[in-house]
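Sequence in, structure out. Go.
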Amino acid sequence: MVGLSMKRAVLTTAILLSIGVASAALAPVANAAGSSTEERVARLERILQAKQESEFQTQQRLDTLQQEVLDLRGLNEQHGYQIDQMLKRQRKLYEEIANLSAKPTASTATTPKVSSTSSSLTLGETASYEYAVNLVLKQRKYDEAIPAFRGFIKKYPDSTYAANANYWLGQLLYNKSEFESAKKAFDTVVNRFKDSNKRADSLVKLGMIAEKVGTVSAAKVYYQQVIKEYANSAASRLAQQQLSAL
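Output:
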């Protein structure tokens, strides 16, 4: 009887052990959340791969932006140099003509006065223009330069120097406060010589003349035209300054 009971106990224990081993073989290793180790590893691998791809794309964008910054810096330095050279030339020009009507030129009793108009018109086109310019820059004979430029414009209205000659004439007249005549000269540059490098400056001068004669609304129109048509130029910056002061 005892032997039969022991056999049953051993058999029951063996059956229970077999069930336990089978259950252990079938059940995956789970974490606290109920996921298997393989699933956790796969999920971590996907997260790591996505992170690496994101970092790679970010680095690519940073590299692209860095190159763009370098390119823009190079262009900025180039433009800055060009603007600096242009401003230096413009300052030199303005220094030469800033005081055009400051001092009259005295003539001596022993030296006969020669008409600047007749003298310049006897020369060729280039020499005639240079003669008028030299009256301003070298000899500082500003009053004589006015008829010299007028004579040149009359004889060579379509000259390659005509736009500059009209601008010079307008500047000389502006400094003598002869605003109506100066306006005609600058208008000629603006309307007849649309490709001239003096056109933007002439528009600024027209705005300044409009200010001088009290037509502020017209001055604003001129300055806005310069800013629109010649953005990022020295004339545009000057127009912006004049406009801000109105």
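Check: The first helix runs from residue 2 to 26. The two ends are 123 Å apart (CA to CA).
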